[in-house]
Design brief:
By secondary structure, the chain is of the alpha/beta class. It has a single domain (9-217, 247-255), classed as Alpha-Beta Barrel (TIM Barrel). It has helices at 42-54, 70-79, 108-122, 141-153, 167-176, 194-203, 221-230, 234-245, 258-266, 274-281, and strands spanning 11-14, 18-21, 25-26, 59-61, 87-92, 94-95, 103-104, 127-132, 157-163, 181-185, 206-210. 48% of the residues are buried.
Length: 288
């Protein structure tokens, strides 16, 4: 049997016992405009999710705030009962007062309610990786993370991760409990989390880059030139660069299109030369 495309990216192990292929899928874009409500075509969203699994994707990232709840419900609708080995990671800690609006809520009571809602929506009894979506300036980080520790002790969470954190916030979270992953914005054009990527590699954490291909930045001349040389798309080059950047990297490119999904996953088979990796590393537009 030919190797599944996502498997050619290799694997990463989170928390010592959760091994997945190193090219995942981000399920934010299967919702409606502004990440609110249903997608324009629910059937297509289901096809995207099922095709991702067919291509060897065994790590899907979502959040209760995507929709809200729409992304989680679509995942369950398309994939439950889940294939053996498929990891559904979700997040809590953000409210959605409107399209494109994200308000942090790190109160323990809210996080408990958010997780309980995710368990129902995903039709599971435990979330393999539950990530605190964003620190709340009105709630001590230690209280928020501590609430997740309690939920893990109750058997409702397997592993805990954090998202949208600084190096200091990660340090504080790790003083409360074991953290297995960090999910921050990161791509060749936004390298502000460079230090966190390196820290994750050093300490055995996974790093999940959101906005892994930026927002329209793939038209960069250096990226375009590398893409032409390989006969691939700039999106594939950027994903290949992420995979080459660090063994801690677990890219989660998302889309609502089967064709774009197949293009993204095919990037796992693209190998950039050390010179190409260095060239792309030099094009960043946001300083680390």
């Amino acid at each position: 049997m030919p190797e599944l495309p996502a498997a050619t990216a290799g694997t990463i192990t989170l928390g010592g016992d959760l091994t997945v292929n190193r090219l995942g899928f981000g399920a934010m874009r299967i919702t409606g405009p502004g990440i609110v409500g249903d997608p324009p075509d629910r059937a297509e969203a289901g096809r995207v999710l099922r095709r991702a699994v067919e291509l060897g994707v065994d790590f899907i990232d979502t959040a209760d705030s995507y929709g809200p709840r729409v992304s989680e419900e679509l995942i369950a609708e398309a994939l439950h009962p889940y294939p053996e080995g498929l990891v559904i990671a979700t997040k809590g800690g953000l409210l959605r007062p409107g399209p494109g609006r994200w308000t942090p809520d790190g109160r323990p009571a809210h996080l408990r309610a958010a997780l309980e809602g995710s368990l129902r929506a995903l039709r599971v009894e435990r979330v393999d990786l539950y990530q605190f979506h964003r620190p709340d300036p009105n709630v001590p980080l230690e209280e928020s993370v501590g609430a997740l520790v309690e939920l893990r002790q109750e058997g409702k969470i397997r592993h805990i991760g954090v998202s949208n954190v600084t190096a200091d916030e990660l340090r504080r979270a790790r003083q409360v409990t074991e953290i297995v992953s960090v999910q921050n914005r990161y791509n060749p054009f936004d390298r502000r989390s460079d230090g966190l990527v390196d820290a994750c590699a050093r300490d055995g954490l996974g790093f999940l880059p959101w906005a892994p291909v930026g927002q329209g930045d793939v038209g960069n001349e250096v990226v375009a030139d590398v893409a032409r040389r390989h006969g691939v798309s700039p999106y594939q080059v950027v994903i290949a660069w992420l995979l080459a950047r660090s063994p801690a990297m677990l890219p989660i490119p998302g889309t609502g299109s089967v064709a774009h999904l197949e293009e993204n996953v095919a990037a796992a088979r693209l190998t950039l030369s050390p010179d190409e990796v260095a060239q792309i590393s030099g094009v960043r537009t946001t300083a680390a």
